[in-house]
Design goal:
Shape: globular
Strand order of the largest sheet: 5-6-7-8-4-31-30-29
Strand content: 35-45%
Helix content: 10-25%
Number of helices: 6
């Protein structure tokens, strides 16, 4: 009896040792567990701790439209571990104080995003994108149209969806008068004028600061895609927060810039003549028409309504400033939060504002300054900071995006959200929206560097375009979309500026 008890204790101790060894291992299998041999346990443990992951598993930021093996994984999340779907096992995240640790959350997420981007790029190069709607093709659409089953509006909208899914990327050659500057500065912002004949660009300068330029898109109609870029003589050492075209003497005659202040240098709002960037008469270039120092300027908008002619607005820290360029008259409206996005209505003298607090409100610019905030109208609320606004042509609906990645379409008559466009990714950046009502498309670039295109009609995600460059905070693409790039006789498509390159996605 005594011998039996001793043997049971020995076996129990061996079981504890085995359980202790297995719990100390850094690799777990979600479906089966292979126990290494006694001679290879130390070597196996060392190899698994140094394993570099290929995929981080399911993530809340994954694009819902993409087919990925991570979405099919049913492995649960374990604290201190990450799941590798290719190896079908877990790997332990090593302590953060280890400087040689290859397994950190940032490195895992970055490598997973890079693998996904490369996979999508390969799929785009192999074949054209398939439409997201089952059975949708040009022949079926034409038959339904001829049979009277589709209205002209629905037919045009679905044709645009087909074209969006067939766009192919081509790189554009950029020519500049100064050959030493061309292709050396990274694009930060590109904004097209109303006719889409020119694009105003903001580029990073190697020694710090920003430089401005205008790209003429007339060369896009040629077989060899090329554009002419004209730089001005000035650059700024401050960050450009917002840019918009201004129609003072003629349509899109000027460019309005809002600069953020740094250190002891205050912010600035500047109105530059577009002729500064002309190749003709370089010696007779006019200077700035309007420039004044202000506190940090987050946003700007030019007014095209005749009831507030020659006026523009700047969204500042807890106030809105409306300025008349000709008379110099200014109106100040105090707000409870920073104004990050603005747009004027054209049919009514209203200015719509999106705030850091998530509030959206309108101002009638004809009224005098009032104490308090009794002048606010059309008040809407997002759960996060509003980064972009777009008022639809009929001015009954307002599109808004926020820093939580939500894009909502609001009915201004009922103050209710009627549609939500899912899939956008944002955490802290001021990212714009691009709405094309004629084509029925919504385009937005996320902080994950993916360009997404939705249908305005039913909020369906039509296409997700990966960036040609690896994803990073300083490589978020800036895009322009139009059915007439280069003017009335231009070519349709999407322009994407990222790093030092400019790409054209043909829309034909």
């Amino acid at each position: 009896m005594f011998a039996l008890r001793v043997e049971m204790r020995r076996n129990y101790g061996r079981g504890k040792e085995r359980r202790g060894w297995n719990s100390h291992k850094c690799s777990l299998h979600p479906h089966r567990h292979r126990r290494p041999s006694h001679n290879n346990r130390a070597q196996s443990l060392e190899q698994e701790e140094q394993q570099t992951p290929v995929n981080a598993g399911p993530s809340s930021n994954e694009d819902p439209s993409s087919s990925s093996s991570t979405q099919n994984s049913v492995a649960p999340e374990l604290p201190g571990f990450y799941y590798d779907p290719e190896k079908n096992r877990y790997f332990r995240l090593l302590p953060g104080h280890n400087n040689h640790n290859p397994l950190t959350k940032d490195s895992i997420q970055h490598k997973a995003m890079e693998c996904k981007r490369l996979r999508l790029l390969e799929e785009e190069e192999r074949q054209n994108q398939k439409t997201t709607r089952t059975g949708l093709n040009s022949s079926v659409l034409l038959q339904k149209r001829q049979l009277g089953l589709l209205s002209s509006t629905s037919y045009c909208r679905l044709v645009h969806e087909l074209k969006v899914n067939c766009m192919q990327r081509r790189k554009i050659e950029i020519h500049s008068l100064d050959s030493s500057v061309a292709g050396t500065n990274n694009f930060k912002i590109i904004v097209a004028d109303v006719a889409c004949e020119r694009i105003f660009t903001v580029n990073d300068v190697e020694h710090g600061g920003c430089k401005y330029g205008i790209i003429n898109l007339s060369g896009l109609g040629k077989e060899s895609l090329s554009v002419e870029m004209y730089d001005n003589l000035y650059f700024t050492n401050r960050k450009v927060n917002s840019v918009c075209w201004a129609s003072l003497t003629h349509p899109d005659s000027h460019v309005l810039l809002c600069l953020m202040g740094i250190a002891e240098t205050p912010g600035c709002a500047s109105l530059l003549p577009a002729s500064l960037f002309s190749s003709t008469n370089p010696g007779a270039r006019p200077g700035m028409l309007c420039s004044f120092k202000i506190s940090t300027a987050w946003s700007c908008a030019w007014c095209l309504n005749p009831q507030a002619d020659n006026c523009f607005s700047t969204g500042l820290t807890r106030r809105v400033l409306v300025t008349n360029v000709v008379t110099g008259h200014r109106q100040t409206f105090g707000t409870s939060s920073d104004v990050l996005a603005q747009q004027f209505a054209t049919q009514t003298p209203l200015l719509y504002n999106g705030c850091r607090s998530g509030e959206i409100f309108s101002i009638d610019v004809r009224q005098r300054n009032r104490k308090g905030q009794s002048w606010k109208a059309n008040r809407l609320f997002h759960g996060s900071a509003v980064t972009s606004l777009h008022l639809m042509e009929a001015e009954h609906y307002l599109m808004a995006a926020d820093m939580a990645g939500k894009i909502k379409l609001w009915d201004l008559r009922t103050a209710k959200c009627v549609k939500q466009y899912k899939g956008h990714h944002n955490e802290y950046a001021l990212l714009p929206l691009h709405v094309n009502e004629k084509e029925g498309l919504l385009i937005a670039v996320g902080q994950d560097c993916y360009t997404r295109i939705w249908s305005l009609q039913d909020a369906q995600l039509l296409r997700t375009i990966p960036s040609p460059h690896p994803s990073s905070k300083d490589a978020i693409p800036s895009v322009v979309f139009s059915s007439r790039l280069g003017g009335s006789r231009g070519v349709p498509g999407l322009l994407m500026a990222v790093k030092q390159d400019l790409y054209h996605f043909s829309y034909n």
